[in-house]
Amino acid sequence: MGLQDESYDCASQAVELAEAGNDDWCLAFALYVQAVTIGLGGDTDTALAITERSADIARVLQDSHLLSWILLGQGYQVADLADANEHTDSEQAFLQRYEEAIALTLEAQNLALDNGDTWTLRKTLVNCADLYSHLGRYADAHAQLDTWLQVQGQPTSRERRQYLANLAETLLHEGKLAEARERCSEALEQAEVASDVGQIAQYAKLLGQIEEESGNLGEALRLYKYFYRQEKRYEGELVKQRARVATVYYDTKSLHKQVEEARTMMLLTERQAFTDELTGIANRRALHNALEALGDGNARNYALIYADIDHFKSINDRFSHQTGDLVIKTFADILSRVCRQSDMVARQGGEEFVILLNRANTEHAIVVCNRIMDCLHEYNWSAIAPGLKVTASFGLAMDFEAANWNSVLALADARLYLAKASGRNRLVTAGGVT
């Protein structure tokens, strides 16, 4: 369609995804497609290097179907490189490249034959015939075309027209102009019936060459003019098709961008919905969701610690609400540092926090509470405000002490109340005050 930059971008993304997913089959195929897009841009050397890597991966995978497709394309690329450098390279270098292209195409042909892949087999046969014909090896070219007729199954109309055109070109190179004219005229008539503008232009040009070689210059001129008109028509249709594809491509790209933006906003909104704005830790809703999951039986052996900053109202009154906010944030940081990544620290509201310890026994939960109280005692609160000191009270309940998480949480809350009533800066468990 002519959208080479867009094609390359898509192929490159496919390569990255295949590499990230360690999917060697997809990587080999994506590399081949990437090579084709690069080759269409005129950089045959780079395209060949990528195709060779693709073929190497397919060989390691021992996927003969994939390898046959890649080798077919590789043969194309080697021949294109030979044609591009025909006037700068030596004749020997030119012939070597063509022989390499033939060898690659024949290998693809044998694989396609073994695989029963008639589409690839027919493509390799006409390609080989064309390569042999350019080297003057007409017997080999006709052998390929004769084999084409023997391939099982019905070829498509387009494949049949391509066969006739390849046969006509081989006959032209041989100097068998009458036969070449007959075959090419047949291909051109069928292309006109099918309204295949691209093939019409291609076959009109070939028939013009045949007439020119035959000395029919008037007919050759008519055909060349016909070719020119069809080529312009073909280019016009391509431009329209490219415009349609480009519109779809960029609309899709814009839609993808909108979807990504919406997804980002959704994730951000979701994070905000489950995150405490002041501290950045989980909020009450996130905690209750986690506890609901525990209630579904996805995990057991948990502990709930209800924590409350002692005399928090006095901190606000004495030092300011800004200082109170810093105390809450620092307290949340201390809780998060002491706990494991598998645990959850949530702000229940105000100066109250709840810690969910997953896969924890009573002894572990008590150790966590003691570490928190030690950290509070050791922290340099005067850095926030001179004379500031912060302690906290804790209530601990284990999952096996109640029938459901609501009851476990209520039990931890009741024990927190007891800790505060007993003088604060302490922990209350099933065994009493510690």
Descriptive overview:
The model has no long low-confidence stretch (mean pLDDT 88). The chain has 16 helices and 6 strands. It has 434 residues and is α+β, with helices and mostly antiparallel strands. The protein is rod-shaped and about 115 Å long. The longest helix has 57 residues, at 217-273. The protein has a 6-stranded mixed beta sheet, with helices on both faces. The N and C termini lie far apart (77 Å).
Q: Which keywords apply here?
A:
alpha+beta, 434 residues, single chain, rod-shaped, 6-stranded mixed sheet
Helix percentage: over 70%
Mean pLDDT: 88
Radius of gyration: 39 Å
What best-fitting shape do the alpha-carbon axes yield? rod-shaped
Order of helices and strands: HHHHHHHHHHHHEHHEEHEHEE
The assigned structural class equals alpha+beta
Number of helices: 16
Q: How many extended strands? A: 6
Proportion of beta-strand residues: 5-15%
Low-confidence stretches: none
Largest sheet: 6 strands, mixed
Strand arrangement in the largest pleated sheet: 2-3-1-4-5-6
State the distance separating the first and last CA atoms.
77 Å
Layout of helices and strands:
Elements: H1 4-20, H2 24-40, H3 44-61, H4 64-84, H5 91-115, H6 118-134, H7 138-150, H8 157-174, H9 177-194, H10 197-214, H11 217-273, H12 284-295, E1 303-309, H13 312-319, H14 321-338, E2 344-349, E3 352-357, H15 362-378, E4 392-398, H16 405-421, E5 427-429, E6 432-433
Parallel strand pairs: 4-5
Antiparallel strand pairs: 1-3, 1-4, 2-3, 5-6
